[in-house]
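4.2 Preliminary Data

To establish feasibility before requesting continued support, the project team ran the inverse folding procedure on a target of 358 residues. The structure was first converted into the token representation described in Section 3, and no sequence information of any kind was made available to the design step. The complete token record follows.
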């Protein structure tokens, strides 16, 4: 089971680093960053399947607390996502409408202007509270319609730049954004670097129309993190290739290039949902909570058995598993195999009663 390593996340936040943010740096090799990515992937998949944990929408006290924390800058969407084990996008989409009025009230208390929660509050008053920021984002989307009726306009570059930052954090490169939106790469880059104050509303709309899920490829470090997790769970690279590429594949080329197609990434990530790896070196579960573990003790038992004159092929026949389970044993095997080997090693030459198949 993958974990987020909450302590590492906390430590990383305390020291002021951004490891806890989703893929904060492309070149970051910290394990906590990879874990984080994988955890978010797991949450997103659970949401797609519809079996993610429910999130309360009627707990007024909780909503008040979160709204206050966000206006004060002590809580952000990552905290909400972590609290409920949900994806960032999901909590933002479902909770933003619930928090909006609360933000506006709190921003008004902090700096009375009567304009919080509006574009004016963001642009003219310079409020960067969550209420005004949300209004600004909404407005940028609404402009799409205004422009369709022939009202060209300039919009501040801020929210568009943030949208580009979000896309980059989700693994969408600026050349891809440029291609998807039909906006020149130099324009995209000048917006991302905020080297210009305003941008054409038509350009802004096209850029806002690009979403992370539209990108045809993902950064391969995401795919490699998924593959690493699968290997930990007992898959072999050849086993993954057989499942994802073709039944006769022996070498896994996915994740080797800098970018991986979304289709391939999703196919590999879907294996995370399989309860048991599809590889001949791991026999099927022998009881309901049989699991994949390090093969170290199994290998030690095989040595003992070899000394007693029982080779792995013979041992496999004796304990009722495929020869591959012992002959081609990798870093991982199952608790079931270890249990049966232990019994065999205790009395290598006595006939054993074959355990019932699970
Ligand atoms: Zn990092
Ligand atoms: Zn405000």
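Position-by-position output of the design step:
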């Amino acid at each position: 089971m993958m974990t987020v390593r909450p302590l590492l996340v906390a430590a990383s936040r305390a020291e002021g680093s951004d490891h806890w943010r989703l893929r904060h740096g492309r070149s970051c090799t910290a394990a906590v960053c990879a874990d984080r990515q994988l955890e978010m992937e797991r949450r997103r998949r659970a949401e797609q399947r519809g079996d993610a944990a429910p999130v309360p929408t009627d707990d007024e006290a909780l909503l008040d607390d979160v709204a206050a924390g966000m206006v004060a800058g002590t809580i952000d969407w990552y905290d909400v996502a972590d609290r409920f084990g949900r994806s960032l996008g999901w909590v933002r989409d479902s909770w933003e409408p619930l928090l909006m009025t609360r933000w506006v009230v709190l921003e008004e208390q902090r700096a009375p202007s009567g304009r919080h929660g509006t574009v004016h509050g963001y642009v003219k008053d310079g409020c960067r509270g969550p209420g005004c920021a949300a209004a600004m984002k909404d407005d940028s989307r609404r402009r799409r319609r205004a422009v369709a009726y022939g009202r060209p306009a300039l919009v501040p570059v801020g929210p568009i730049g943030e949208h580009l930052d979000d896309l980059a954090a989700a693994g969408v490169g600026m050349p891809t954004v440029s291609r998807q939106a039909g906006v020149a790469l130099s324009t995209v880059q000048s917006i991302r670097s905020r080297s210009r104050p305003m941008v054409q509303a038509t350009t802004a709309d096209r850029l806002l129309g690009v979403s992370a899920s539209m990108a045809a490829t993902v950064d391969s470090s995401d795919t490699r993190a998924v593959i690493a997790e699968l290997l930990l769970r007992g898959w072999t690279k050849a086993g993954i290739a057989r499942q994802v590429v073709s039944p006769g594949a022996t070498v896994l080329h996915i994740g080797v290039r800098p970018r991986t197609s979304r289709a391939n990434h999703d196919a590999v990530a879907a294996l995370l949902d399989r309860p048991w790896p599809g590889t001949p070196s791991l026999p099927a579960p022998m009881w309901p909570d049989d699991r994949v573990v390090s093969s170290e003790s199994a290998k030690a038992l095989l040595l003992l058995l070899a000394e007693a004159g029982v080779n792995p092929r013979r041992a496999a026949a004796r304990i009722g598993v495929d020869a591959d389970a012992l002959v081609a044993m990798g870093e991982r095997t199952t608790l079931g195999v270890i249990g049966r080997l232990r019994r065999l090693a205790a009395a290598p030459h006595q006939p054993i009663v074959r355990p019932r198949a699970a």
